[in-house]
Amino acid sequence: MSRRGRRSDWERLDESDVRVRPGKGTRPRSKRRPEHADARAAMVVEVDRGRWTCALDGKPDREIIAMRARELGRTPIVVGDLVDLVGDTSGRPDTLARVVRVADRSSVLRRTADDNDPFERVVVANAQQLLIVCSLADPPPRTGFIDRCLVAAYAGGLKPVLCLTKSDLAGPDEIIAAYAELAVQVLVTRSDREPDEVRERLTGQISALIGHSGVGKSTLVNKLVPDAMRATGVVSAVGKGRHTSTTAVALPLPGGGWVVDTPGIRSFGLAHVEPDDIVAAFDEFVEPAEECPSGCGHLGPPADPDCMLDIVTAEGHASAGRLASLRRLLASRARLDEYGD
Fold first, then answer.
1. For 259-318, how does the pLDDT look when each residue is reduced to its tens digit (9 = 90+)?
2. 127 neighbors 206 (Cβ within 8 angstroms)
3. Phi then psi dihedrals of residue 55, to 5 deg
4. Which of 40, 87, 98, 103 is paired with 276 by a 20 to 30 Å CA distance?
5. What is the homologous superfamily of the domain 40-102 according to CATH?
6. Which of 288, 270, 280, 238 is CA-nearest to residue 336?
């Protein structure tokens, strides 16, 4: 029989004998995700190399180590975040739970490495107030840094509180006067006394602490939380200090509440902040700012000659001192201040 007259085995097959394997692109994908109805609520208190330490039900004596569930992808999770956990939530050694949900944040403390850095870093989530720690001497106060921290607090929805340390070395009157128009609460401490006023202000709250290295922040934390054992830095000869806190960590206060000790930093970038974010913290200027020309930075002449904030102040509807304080913060955000970091 000739080759053309023979039918090979594959020629005798019909379509019912062939099994077609679908390609990856044709497989149906479900958008449904597990509901995790049995998830337990917790607060993130520390982050370390892909592992999150969480206080179960917000209780400091119920710490759980967790990993991020695959379904969350690269969702950022920071100290202060309120999360839902599944899996082993016993807290026993060598156990690991999974973070399956992250709640919406009520506030965020953000910073960038500098003002040209487009990458925002969320330092703390859901804190109610920001305690800005500044020494009155050794190293000397840096009002430019305080201003930028105030901007970050206003933009992130935190109530700022200024804490002046080392008052046994220098008086606080000049700094207090500089921030009088902003109505920022100022607490004053000294090395040889207990920080009772600070302790009272923080109890029952979630508070983030921020400050340059060497200003006494870790010393303050060790007094507020005796079991904290945070390293205490030694100020260098040039006044920059040694960075002693390397990661943010939430520490429980004996009387209730949490303090989030953040790493000592030398710069506080504000690339993520817009002028209107700052104006929003000044109720009397919010509506007039909406009438300003497009692109107005609210800095006043010569940069913004038609700024409406000047008009409402001239008409007596707002304090000139408040406007000057607002513009100092705006200038700090724009790196136009004369105070320096």
1. 999 876 655 667 778 888 899 989 999 999 999 999 899 999 999 999 999 999 999 999
2. yes
3. -90, 110
4. 103
5. Nucleic acid-binding proteins (2.40.50.140)
6. 270
Cβ atoms of residues 78 and 232 within 8 Å: no
* Contact partners, residue 71, CB within 8 Å, separation at least 6: 33, 34, 100
* Cβ–Cβ < 8 Å for 309, 300: yes
Residue with tokens 């062939």, as numbered in its chain: 18
- The band of 35, judged by pLDDT with boundaries at 50, 70 and 90, is confident
> At 225, is the pLDDT very low, low, confident or very high (cuts 50, 70, 90)?
very high
Q: Which CATH class is domain 108-261?
A: alpha beta
H-run or E-run covering 202: helix 196-202
pLDDT at 165 over 60: yes
Token digits for 331? 């200038």
Q: What is the amino acid identity at position 294?
A: S
What b/e string do you get for 276-311 counting C-beta neighbours within 10 Å, with b at 16 or more? ebbbebbeebeebbeebeeebbbbbeeebeebbbbe
Give the separation between CA 148 and CA 334, rounded to whole angstroms.
Answer: 10
Identify the sign of the CA torsion 232, 234, 235, 240. negative
**Per-residue exposure over 228-258, b if at least 16 CB sit within 10 Å of its own CB, e if not:** eebeebebeeeeebeebbeebbbbbbeeebb
User: Residue 191's CB: how many other CB atoms inside 10 A?
Assistant: 13
